[in-house]
Amino acid sequence: MSDEYDNNKSYQAQSSEVLDGSAGSINPDMDYVRPAEIPEQDLYHAHSFIQKWIFCQDAKVIGVQYFLTAVFTGIVGLILSWLMRLQLGFPELAGFMTAEHYYQFVTMHGMIMVVYFLTALFLGGFGNYLIPLMVGARDMVFPYVNMLSFWMFFVAVAVLMASFFVPGGPTGAGWTLYPPQTILEGTPGSGMGILLMLISLSLFVIGFTMGGLNYMITILQARTRGMTLMRMPLTVWGIFTATVLAMLAFPALLVSAIMMTLDKVLQTSFFMPTILKAGEVLEYGGGSPILFQHLFWFFGHPEVYIVALPAFGIVSDLISVHARKNIFGYRMMVWAIVGIGGLSFFVWAHHMYVSGMNPWFGFFFATTTLIIAVPTAMKVYNWILTLWRGNIRINTVMLWCLGFIVTFVNGGITGIFLGNVSVDVPLSDTYFVIAHFHMVMGIAPLMVIMGAVYHWFPLVAGKMLHEGLGKWHFWITFLGAYSIYFPMHYLGFIGVPRRYFEMYDSPYMTSAVGMNEFISIAAFIVGAAQFILVFNIIKTLKTGKKAEQNPWKANSLEWYTSTVPPEHGNFGERLPVVHRWPYDFSVPGAKDDFIPQTTAPSEVANTEVEKT
Amino acid sequence: MSEQKIDGFELKPGFKGMASDTGSDQTMFKGVHWGKAMMWIFLLSDTFVFSCFLISYMKGRGSTIVDWPNTSEVFSLHVGGVPVPLLLIAIMTFVLITSSGTMALAVKYGYEKNRKMCGWLILATAVGGLTFVGMQVFEWSKLIHEGVRPWGNPFGASQFGSFFFMITGFHGFHVSIGVIFLFIYTYKVFAGHYESKKRGWFTKMKGDYVEIEILGLYWHFVDLVWVFIFAFFYLW
Lengths: 612, 236
Description:
Low-confidence stretches of chain B: none
Strand content of chain A: under 5%
Oligomer: heterodimer
Largest interface: A-B, 54 and 51 residues
Mean pLDDT of chain A: 91
Low-confidence stretches of chain A: 1-24
Strand order of the largest sheet of chain A: 1-2
Mean pLDDT of chain B: 92
Distance between the termini of chain A: 23 Å
CATH architecture of the largest domain in chain B: Up-down Bundle
Structural class of chain B: mainly alpha
Distance between the termini of chain B: 39 Å
Number of domains of chain B: 2
CATH topology of the largest domain in chain B: Four Helix Bundle (Hemerythrin (Met), subunit A)
Radius of gyration of chain A: 26 Å
Number of strands of chain B: 2
Shape of chain A: globular
Strand content of chain B: under 5%
Number of helices of chain B: 8
Radius of gyration of chain B: 22 Å
Order of helices and strands of chain A: HHHHHHHEEHHHHHHEHHE
Number of strands of chain A: 4
Number of helices of chain A: 15
């Protein structure tokens, strides 16, 4: 060891920062990690089928349950979007669809995709599966509450789906559910439909609170020895910050849902002003519809980041692993996630520029909105700098990541357009808005989900997804998504309004028709292409090639479990001990191009690892 | 927490201590039970729920076109023909705050492993909470009797009844949940579940007297929220 010590000394003079071990010497204590301060978790091992697979308390099974339920709702949302596109592109083929149907599909598509699909998938699905594994815990800290959380979500989905089958159908008020029209007669589903929607949202919030408490406490209080906050994978940081946002933003949704339920059921007038209907004054009076908009968007804007932050975190990890390079500016990435999370509570009224609120409000919210672009841009630069001179592997996962960066930059830039009051006002309620948010919070997070599925499938199922099918899936989705949403920007600029069932003889009729047909065809193809993944998963489960342990040569703890797929308790007899961050890739002087988080400093004493 | 010892870790006071705890491995809140940390975060989230309610109330009250009812008349009790404003509310508040005191004592005796005393005090807290809910039922029925409804009332703006029933109802729901749990924990303490390390009915987890403190946190929170509701509804 002594000559290694001499070698160390020579480069230690150049950089004392990058040396693991305090003085560059191999002192006997360099592998020291504090003893455990929390006792071994008391786990309840289930024996019956029902307790193992249905009312299961293992976070991994709960994660998969969340994932499958969310994907089911996602497919429903996808079918609704097909029906909408059929009406917009080929109205002559959609004779069975009335204007009421169209509004109901718009509403349900929006609510399903934002809340029941993306939020549940990222936090419930990836959160449950990855958090305990990545921080080195045996399970979530409250497994029973975690199980209740999933079943509450399941009931919320069941109630939501039930609204398709009640008299009057689901609500057709738009996913923002603005009063007064939401609960007035004449709006589709203003009877049972809206009631079930509000109940379902309330159940979702309660269920999510149970899950969110688990995620937060597991991350804060149940990390393994040596796992500091600044050694956590960015995936965990993203999910953690999103959970904090959700815990503080969902209350506003719960409160507005309760108040609107009362407006509907008990004829209170929280949100209902005096209204004339067919010359008659309704019983409502004195309420404030703008109050609902404030409450809704106080939830709604953080919600955008609840979806985006886990995606940011996950994509950072995927890029780092598949470019074999440490993530550029890890600390900056963490602070950017936290900063975006904090700022997201001060921008909500940029959704309300045309609501008639005080213009000075608009000025304030435009400023805060544009400030968010700073940490977001930092993240984009860091992803690109991570790729720069990396040992990039162009596999399916990396393709999805690259697709994400491009789409996200696109959607982000149109966001800067819309953040300015003077640009937003003419573009409000046009297809430009549709294009913007589908790019930035629809397609971009979806790309990350797909990348994450291809990345973590070997861990969950122990088999490798087929690469060729994956690449087909990617290219059709990527090019198709651009074919759908790029023309929509143009439609928005010529003034085509959103949420219109039909264009009639509008002046933009001629140029919009061909484009709408093109978009619809692309939407059918992209939607169908998603079933390539379903086919790939089924095929892989049946005949796929068995995955070796840690097929991507990653460093984070989820790949170092005792068995693959991990069993209940995750890590076998002893919990792992962490000595470093998860990004030690291509370290000069190291034997392999990756150093697992569990590798002791003395084993890699002569390498140039980052000090974390 | 300062007297607590964490193996291999030096607990420092003040901001430096907070920074070093945050930067350390395993736990951020040193020596804090999982359930206790969870309750604090849940209460933070619940604070947002009540804040949204109360801010909506302020907005609603500020923007009605009809005058708000005179609260010192609406909420007064007639004692011997003389209207006494705030009488019932004063008693309700007194009972609830007293129950917070008995709860705090229960936590203290729990940690001292004084099972009997702890049990009686939790029971006293539960009875206090139940009395509060009972008086709230009385108040509600009095108001309903006088014609106050969620959708309107004879005294002024219809939003008065809407907000009053919704927010006190939501608070009363919290108190009721608390009372149910207080009774459950009375049973658990008297039955000695924490000494025998009996596993929970549903969660299958072993309990500890820290659970009394966690329940206490919830109970104090519910009392604190009441103070705000009291100020905003009865004094404004």
